[in-house]
Structure formats: C-alpha cells, structure tokens
Specification:
- The structure is a homodimer.
- By secondary structure, chain A is mainly alpha-helical.
- Chain A contains six helices and two strands.
- In chain A, helix 2 crosses helix 5.
- Chains A and B meet through helix 1, helix 2, helix 5 and helix 6 of A and helix 1, helix 2, helix 5 and helix 6 of B.
- Chain A binds a DNA duplex (30 and 30 nucleotides) through helix 1, helix 2 and helix 4.
Chain lengths: ~150, ~150
DNA sequence: CGCAATTGAGTTGTGCGCAATGTACTTTGG
DNA sequence: CCAAAGTACATTGCGCACAACTCAATTGCG
C-alpha cells in the first residue's frame, strides 16, 4: 500500500489542529493584558522560577535564542521583565520579573480559568490528554538526535 | 488562589510542545522531497480529495486564505499542484494535483512510516491520543464563537 | 601564558498562522 | 436593470519557530 491515511486519521494533524485551536482559545482573553500565547507561556515559566538565563528558559520552553531573544525584548519593552547582563559571565543574560510582571499573574490566572471553563471536557479527559501529550513529546524527542 | 500551575501541568503547553516536537520529527524526512510539514498536510488533504476550492481546503485544514494562498503558490511553483480559475464562478480557484504531485504520495507514505517507526509509542496510546485530541479540538472550537 | 575550541546570546532569512484590509466577481432587492 | 450587499481569494503586517550565521566571552589544552 502506498496510500496515506485521510486527514482525520493523522495523529500529527490532530495534534497540530488541537494546538492551534487552543492558541485560538487564548486569543479570546490574553489581548486584554496585551500578551500573545507564547509570551504568556514564557511568563508562566518565569512565575514558576524567576531569574534564569535565556538558555535555561529556552530549555524549559523548548525554544532557542532565535525565538526567545525578540520575544523577551518585547516583554522587556512592555516593562514586564528586565534583562541583566551577568557580571560573573558576561555572555549570559538573566531574566527577572518586574513588579508589574509579577502582578500580572493573578489576572492571567483568572483569564486562564475562564478559558478552560468554556471548554466542555472532563477532568479525567484533560488529565489523560496531558499525560499522553507528555508521553508523545518524550517519545518523539528521543528519536530526533537533538544537537542542541 | 491567584497562582498559575507550573509548566508541566499546563495542558496548553503540553499540546503546544507535542505539536512542535512532531513538526520537528517531520523535519527529519520531509526535506528529502522538498516539503515543509504544512505543505505535506495540505497535500494529504488533496490526495484524499482533489479538485477542491481554496476555501473548502481551508475549512478542512482549519486555515484561512492568508496562510493558504502563499503556501499553495509555493506548491504550484514546485509543479505539484495547479490553480485553475473556475469558469462558472470566477471568484473561485480550484486546486488540482499534477502527475508529479500525485506521484509524491507513495514516497511521502514511506517517509511517514519511517518517522512513526522511530517513535516509541504503542498503537493504543496513539489511538487514545488521536481521539482525545479530536475531542479537545471539538470542545474548544465550539466555545470560540467562530465567525468563519 | 597563548591560542584554538566552545558557549551564550543575538541577527538574518524563510515559512507558517492569523487579523485586517483590498479587490474582483456574483447575488439580491428595488 | 442597476446599486448595494455579500462572497472568494489575495495582500499586508505582525509575531512565532527554526536553521544558519555572527560576535564576544570563556574555557581548555599544549
């Protein structure tokens, strides 16, 4: 057989579509606080752990400097974070939340709650999806001989 | 509570990461046939049903003309598809596979098989993930009052 | 010590994704 | 029959994602 399965049977397509639909759902609330989805998720990482370097942040978000540098520049421009060149190793830049950036967490949490309340999915379904998505990511990443 | 859950607990982040990791996995094989992942998935839709209009294709892929127009232009430039202005309604453009585009299906199928063989995930896990991803997409889409 | 290799961040170029807008064509209502 | 409304596609602008590259700082090895 040399045929390819139809669109709906493609796992890759389903993941792609789910991800974009989700980004779309966030687009309903995040603009209120002036954020895009990737900016939001970057702040989530910082709310969890502040003061990390760009590359450390990139490792957690699975993003490289080519994506993060301009994104962080925009967040700094909004006054939500600060970029500090480190004294010990001047190649490194550490990222620090400003008071404004820290203050955004509660508003973002409220927006996120609203978004998920609107989605008709059970807790157990969400949990299963979360753990399977992690499984898939881990499995797919281990095959790709990541060079970074 | 005004805090936001950690990165690993974010369903949204897990979906985002899974989708990008998967795109990355395809990046290992698709360049052989000169395609990006969205171009590949567009061809999958055409292999499934040829001769549709741009908007019909967009509905199936959940993409709008702003994304599809340049993408289709690139595919046409590679000689894989043809764009025909319809006689009956000249606003419409129908998309048709060329023999070269049709011939690509078997090669693409082989590449896809290789990619999935490298991913250590069971059939039942893949099926569960597929169906949950569909569930999520449907649930999240129904809340967003989509105007298109 | 001195210089080559490595590392951390940034820049550039290409393509995707989407909102907003533009343009040509078709349908509808008077 | 013609003007207004609606439709199908294209274009523009912005941000994300990633590869490839540059540059400066640091590390390591002779």
């Amino acid at each position: 057989m040399t045929k390819i399965a139809g669109l709906d049977d493609q796992l890759c397509f389903a993941l792609h579509a789910a991800s974009r639909t989700m980004t779309n759902a966030y687009r309903a609330g995040l603009p209120e606080i002036g954020l895009t989805y990737p900016q939001f998720i970057t702040l989530v990482a910082l709310w969890e752990q502040d003061g990390t370097t760009v590359s450390e942040l990139g490792a957690r978000l699975h993003l490289d400097s080519g994506t993060l540098s301009p994104l962080l520049k925009r967040l700094a421009g909004m006054g939500l974070i600060e970029r500090r060149r480190e004294a010990a190793d001047e190649r490194r830049v550490s990222i620090h939340l400003t008071p404004e950036g820290r203050a955004l967490e509660s508003r973002a949490a409220a927006i996120q709650r609203d978004i998920f309340q609107g989605i008709d999915i059970t807790d157990s379904e969400a949990e299963a999806l979360l753990s399977l998505a992690h499984r898939f990511t881990a499995a797919a990443e281990s095959t790709t001989q990541t060079s970074r």
